[in-house]
Amino acid sequence: MTMRTRLAIRFAPLALALSALRFATLASMTLAFVTLAFVTLAFVTLALAAPSARAADTPDPVADAKAFQKYFTQKFPKLKPEDFVNGPYSMNEDMRRQWEEKEQFPPYEFALEAGKDMFSKPFKNGKSYVDCFANAGIGIRQNYPYFDEKEGKVVTLELALNRCREANGEAPISYVKDEMASLTAYMAFTSRGKPMDIKIPNDPRALEAYENGKRYFYPRRGQLNFSCATCHVQTPGERIRAEILAPALGILNAMPIYRSEWSGMGTTSRRFTTCNSQIRGVPLSPQDEDYRDLEYYLSYVSNGLPISGPGARP
């Protein structure tokens, strides 16, 4: 056996090990390249998909309103869209007949007269509510609430009335008492039949206010674990105790309302705070920003439906 042969035999295991190492290294590099390719492809796919995902998450009030109204018209196919503003009276034929009879001598008539007198009565400085509103305050209810781009906040009709008072040296009045209910009743009456016409200006703050109102509407709260939607989206037309629940669609078009339960008039602020109390939650202060945004949201998704306020409810 030659010396070369003996060396080849002696170092054969080492040669095999080196070959295996080179193969393993090559395989690892190949796997690394393949893995890198897949990761790169994944990132590219995500990057391409990101705009679509962002588009899907972008708030779209127009689509919201369309879907909101479609939900109710499909849930109650026998009702015309304008019927929803009549609340529970659109849900029950017997109640509707009683309501139509009641409308011949409406229980809110006293509030209309009082509101008309208050609206035209001069403040101490000689001005009146007429001087604070477009068109002297007549036929403008359908435009409230609106988003004030200077302030960056939602302004409701109730808030605008108190701001008018304060601007003219008068003390604000309660958002939940008869005076405010009477004033808004009169202004609503001058807009009867006009379609709700709420605008969302091209301002990200306005869109955020709308979204905030929407966020307030759907989450559950209070000891009873109810949301606004529990009663007014999931179960309208059904009874809770002796009350037939009204649909959320058009629910604010009838405000303010005379409620038999209250034996008097109630503003939107009173309705919101009462709802929170009824579910054993903690009401916000009247005209809290969340309440104003909620009113903005509910009014917007009812765009096109007629103003029917003041209304009457059981």
- Give the domain tally: 1
Number of helices: 11
Characterize the overall form.
globular
Q: How many strands appear in the DSSP assignment?
A: 7
> How confident overall, as mean pLDDT?
85
Strand fraction equals 5-15%
CATH topology label: Cytochrome Bc1 Complex, Chain D, domain 2
Distance between the termini: 116 Å
What is the helical fraction, as a range of percent? 40-55%
Strand order in the sheet with the most strands: 6-5-7
Taking the sheet with the most strands, its summary is: 3 strands, mixed
Structural class: mainly alpha
Model regions low in confidence, pLDDT < 50 over at least 5 residues = 1-55
Care to describe what's here?
The chain is mainly alpha-helical and 314 residues long. The chain has one domain (62-313): Cytochrome c-like domain (Cytochrome Bc1 Complex, Chain D, domain 2). Helix content is 50%, strand content 6%. The protein is built from 11 helices and 7 strands. The protein has helices at 3-10, 12-57, 61-75, 93-102, 109-120, 157-167, 178-189, 204-217, 228-234, 268-278, 289-300; strands spanning 146-148, 153-155, 239-240, 243-244, 257-259, 264-266, 311-313. It has a 3-stranded mixed sheet. A two-stranded antiparallel sheet has the order 1-2. A two-stranded antiparallel ribbon has the order 3-4. Strand 3 and strand 4 (243-244) form a beta hairpin. Helix 5 (109-120) packs across helix 7 and helix 8 crosses helix 11 (289-300). The radius of gyration is 32 Å and the shape is globular. The termini are far apart. The relative contact order is 0.15.
